[in-house]
From TrEMBL:
<dbReference type="InterPro" id="IPR036416">
    <property type="entry name" value="Pept_tRNA_hydro_sf"/>
</dbReference>
<dbReference type="Pfam" id="PF01195">
    <property type="entry name" value="Pept_tRNA_hydro"/>
</dbReference>
<dbReference type="InterPro" id="IPR018171">
    <property type="entry name" value="Pept_tRNA_hydro_CS"/>
</dbReference>
<dbReference type="GO" id="GO:0004045">
    <property type="term" value="F:peptidyl-tRNA hydrolase activity"/>
</dbReference>
<protein>
    <recommendedName>
        <fullName>Peptidyl-tRNA hydrolase</fullName>
    </recommendedName>
</protein>
<dbReference type="InterPro" id="IPR001328">
    <property type="entry name" value="Pept_tRNA_hydro"/>
</dbReference>
C-alpha cells in the first residue's frame, strides 16, 4: 500500500514469465469494485513509449489481460494504462519478442513512458479517470505522431 494525495493505492506486480493474475483475488480481498481498479500493462498495438488510458476494454489477444478478465468473472469494466512496446520486427515470434530485453532506444522510450505513467496516475487520483483520459490521451496522440518518424 502506498499513500498519494491522501489516497491509498495498492500495487501488484506479476512475477515471472507467466500470466497468472492475482488481480481478482486482490480485488476481492480489498473489496474493491472494478471501477476502482486500474491495470497497467504492455501493449504491442501501440508504438514503443506511447501510453493510453482507457476506461474499459477487451483483452486484445493479451494473455495477461485474458487471465485478469477471467478472474474478474468475465467483467471488462476496469481501467487500463497501456504502455506501448511496438510489434516485433519482421517475422519475429511475438513470444520471443516479449521475453527479450529492450534495445537502448526502446529502453529510453519506455523509461520516459513510465515517468509519464506516474504523472498520469497522479492526474487520475486528483482529477478522475474521465478528465485524465481526455487530457492525457490527447498529449500521447501527438507523441505517437512524433515517434512514427523516428527510428527504433
Amino acid at each position: 500500500m502506498v499513500s498519494v494525495s491522501m489516497c491509498e493505492i495498492s500495487f501488484d506486480k506479476i512475477k515471472g514469465k507467466n500470466n497468472k493474475s492475482k488481480a481478482g483475488p486482490l480485488a476481492a480481498y480489498y473489496k474493491l469494485p472494478l471501477n476502482r481498479v486500474l491495470m497497467i500493462h504492455d501493449d504491442m498495438d501501440l508504438p514503443c513509449g506511447v501510453l493510453r488510458l482507457q476506461h474499459k476494454g477487451g483483452h486484445g489477444s493479451h494473455n495477461g489481460l485474458k487471465n485478469v478478465i477471467f478472474h474478474f468473472r468475465g467483467n471488462r469494466e476496469f481501467a487500463r494504462l497501456r504502455i506501448g512496446i511496438s510489434r516485433p520486427p519482421g517475422q519475429m515470434d511475438p513470444k520471443a519478442f516479449l521475453l527479450q530485453k529492450f534495445n537502448q532506444t526502446a529502453r529510453e522510450r519506455i523509461d520516459v513512458a513510465l515517468q509519464e505513467g506516474v504523472d498520469a496516475l497522479k492526474h487520475v487520483l486528483s482529477k478522475g479517470l474521465t478528465e485524465s483520459t481526455r487530457c492525457f490521451n490527447k498529449e500521447q496522440k501527438y507523441k505517437h505522431i512524433r515517434l512514427q518518424t523516428l527510428p527504433t
